[in-house]
Design a protein that fits this description.
By secondary structure, the chain is an alpha+beta fold. The protein folds into 2 domains: 178 residues, 2-Layer Sandwich (Alpha-Beta Plaits); 61 residues. It has 7 helices and 10 strands. The strands form 2 sheets. The chain has a 6-stranded mixed sheet with strand order 2-5-4-1-3-10, with no helix packed on it.
Length: 267
């Protein structure tokens, strides 16, 4: 059904477009998703209390492994001038020194495989391997190169917590931010957080400036993102399809984030 057709891009290691090409519909939501690695652990059969403890520990370990893996991949694909910024980010995220040193050593190893950021553009759901298998079940088709990405812009997104609106706006101006938006939780309820958007080249300096001004910056959730140039409003049925698509993609090992211009689901 045409109403269920969505635009999707998958960002990941060695993901290349291989589906047939069709013209996209510009009035439908679009998605972009980068790579991640994480692991899960199963809860063994034991007492209810012990099972809950094991489940919480498993989730915490998986979250920690995801952070370590993301920093590791960034270190491997790093350009020399970016080292200082990423090492600071790793330190702020609490990544152990041995993890950092091990991945720096990997990056200098001539035999080490190269991690590169590559993009596939999709109408609906598509990709390679597990990604393609999961998405083609939704009836997605590939769009022509560039037909999705021109609707997104690369920006830095900085999450600021616990400050009033006036303080955040004044600090955003001093930090050189381009835009400020209130942040919402997973249920769509307002929070005490704000999202500040910056140019890519000023992302790191903006974080430092905001911290100097005394604002509480959530470094772990501050990152470079693909932001839609305009949000697209959809009906309830299409919204649920978009939300299900995002959840499906995020369950895959090779997907780190999903970006969309669907109103109500934008990052």
């Amino acid at each position: 059904m045409a109403s269920l057709m969505q635009h999707v891009g998958v960002l990941g290691s060695s993901l290349l477009a291989s589906s047939r090409l069709v013209a996209p519909r510009l009035d439908m939501p679009q998605f972009v998703a980068p790579l991640r690695t994480y692991k899960t652990s199963l809860v063994v059969h034991m007492g209810r209390r012990s099972a809950k403890i094991a489940l919480r520990k498993g989730k915490a370990d998986a979250k920690k492994a995801k952070v370590y893996g993301r920093i590791g991949k960034k270190l491997i694909q790093l350009r020399q001038q970016q080292v200082a910024d990423l090492l600071k980010q790793a330190k702020d995220l609490g990544v152990p020194k041995d993890i950092i040193e091990r991945n720096i050593k990997k990056a200098s190893d001539a035999k080490q495989g190269d991690f590169q950021e590559c993009i596939t553009r999709r109408t609906g759901r598509a990709g390679q391997g597990d990604v393609k298998s999961a998405i083609t079940k939704g009836g997605g088709k590939a769009a022509d190169s560039g037909s999705v990405m021109f609707n997104f812009m690369r920006q830095g997104q900085v999450l600021v917590h616990g400050a009033d609106e006036d303080t955040v706006f004044e600090a955003a101006i001093d930090a050189g931010a381009d835009d400020v938006q209130p942040a919402f939780d997973e249920e769509g309820n307002p929070t005490n957080d704000f999202k500040l958007f910056t140019q890519v080249e000023s992302f790191s300096s903006a974080i430092s400036k905001l911290q100097e001004l005394g604002l509480s910056v959530n470094v772990e959730q501050s990152e470079l993102v693909y932001r839609g140039t305009a949000e697209v409003a959809v009906d309830d049925a299409s919204f649920e399809k978009c939300e299900a698509l995002m959840e499906r993609l995020l369950e895959l090992d090779d997907v780190d984030n999903v970006y969309t211009n669907c109103e109500g689901l934008t990052n």
